[in-house]
Write a structure and sequence with these properties.
single chain, TonB-dependent receptor, 23-stranded antiparallel sheet, Maltoporin, Chain A, five-stranded mixed sheet, transport, mainly beta, 705 residues, iron
Amino acid sequence: MKPHRLALILTALPLAVHAEETRVDAEETRLDEISITATREERASGEVPQAIAVVGKAELEDKKMFNVKEALQAIPGVFVDSKNGGFDARLIIRGAGLKAPYGIREIMVLRDGVPLTDPDSFSRLDFVDTQDIERIEVAKGPGNLFAAGSSGGAIQIFSKSVFDDAANNLKLGFGTQGTQNYHLRYGLTGERQAVALTATYRNMDNDWRIWNQFDTTQISLKHGLLLDGGSLESELSYAEANIQLPGAMDKTLYEQFVDKGKQTDTSEAWKHSGRYSKVLFLNSKYEVESGDFTFKPRLYYNTWYHYHPVTGIVNESEEWVWNLGADLEGQWKHSGGTLVGGLTARQERTPDSRKYQYGQVKTTTSRGACVDSATATGRILATCSDAKGRLAEIDDATNLLTGIYLQESWRPAERWIVDIGVRYDLINFTDDNQQFWKYDYAAGKYIKGAGPSHSEKTYRLPAPKLAVNYKLTDTLNLFGMIAQAGQVPSQSEFSNNPALEAPISRNHEIGLKGRSKDWRFDASVYVNNVEKEIVTITTGGVNNFVNAGETERKGLELAGSLNLAGGFELGGYYGYADYTYESFSEPVGGKNLDRAGNTVPFVPKNQYGVFLGWASPTGWKARLSSNTWGSYWLDNANTEKYAGWDWVTNFSLSYEQKGHSVTLNADNLFDQHYAMEVKKDTIGKVTYAAAAPRTLMLTYRYDFQ
């Protein structure tokens, strides 16, 4: 959409939704969001000496929240999109997470202080109930006490408190593409105890694209107990999530999608990728105060099964994977500030994980018929289903993370806060593998595997931090920080290349934050150098991982909003990213080619957006937002660019009265057809992943009084 068209809509919106609004009282105070993710200390976001973003309850209520993308897509420096619209998300923060072909890596994701990220830095969102989110905090880059072995920062999801009776609600939603949402949250609170039951079912047919369905069923039971001087909160949840992951397109198919808005096929042979999971999750957190000391131990356990067809292979956890962890945190408030320290221990056990060939395939010699892959001859042209075939590999892996952290938040004078801290994490990988068969990309068929292998490695990751916040005025805070973090390779990366070293990310940043009852803004400039960065080398569809010499990431980020008369709010954001390889030799066709000076692919130099919100005392609310990603390079060689996408617009309109509310959401309002991701491999193959066309959803909500 052209900028002048967006301006016309922004101008017309007040006329379209005008209905008995009255001017917001000028004396009404706009409260700053509270953040704890960066420092583990409750602090107004304006006083945190780091680039952070807090997406609060009011903003989340305007969204249908099928995916975290909806909450995070308007934050500068954060690049997020979804192939399906379900729980899957491609998430990048300041370049971290770029190498992940699927899921979230290099970024710590937490829920209520409990890591959703495995010890090997892989995060799964399949058991996050996005209908049960109170707020989300994003802390960018190194320097987070929560971020064990993750250099990209931390995202913390806060669910609705078991003690919050106001969170009880019933929600029913229906939309285009077969979208359905049913959600119930009901709790009871006594004098010292509380209990809450949450159940959610979400479904999307997504028939604008083949092999694109999603559904999830989630249920959780929370219990809270108030004790003398403290509290104990526990949660037991179960989730079943099924998601089909559609394949990419070549240029011909992509041009058809741009013309018609439908993807009728994929140019890849692997047409039936997906992830089908069952997750049982238990966590318990205790908090007790004794004078100036607060003790916060957390214990958590999750176990999961998945069936995960991907490129060339079908993954299945024959026995349920389990992840057991504890975080023992203590806080001491003294005359000069706050001292926070603690210990972390987590182990993930993946026993008897298995990989299979695809069962039925079409080959160059099968004359269009589906044949058993175990007896097939010729190059595989297409899978016939996601059913597994002959056993190809057995894997037994253990990851153990242990860590210690300590931070002093010193307040030498009324206007100063100095954070001096460090994390030190130790991650040990052990992997025993028996490979019977593997897919050979050059031959296009399954061949004999490498047999048995054993790998073991330990990574040591120190993460020091020095950050300073100075209160210039009652509304302005100036900050600066220097921080380092190590990045643990994921299990799949380590298995692919046991010689991988842990990257080291060092960030230097200054910024200014403003908070007022009528306006707010965040501005920061950073230089982030990454040594031994792990990059993906894609050749003929297969991903290999190697350490690059050094990458320099320089950026500028701006975000702000302004309260206007009549209940209107106007805001926007801008992110500039200049990421280059300082030294990098890319192996291509048996040769090492120098990529020094080239720009890191996929990350656009320019990212920006605007929004206009409106709220009336009569119960009406509306929000119009539009986002843009600029052009980016497709490969490490910088041979071709994708133009990006301009002014993709979302709209919501809602009315609330006496606990009842109705909300209409329109995502991609003007039905733009574009690619959410374009890649080019080392042999010149370009693939496109389509972004979702326009979707509409109508939601009714009742808040129990």
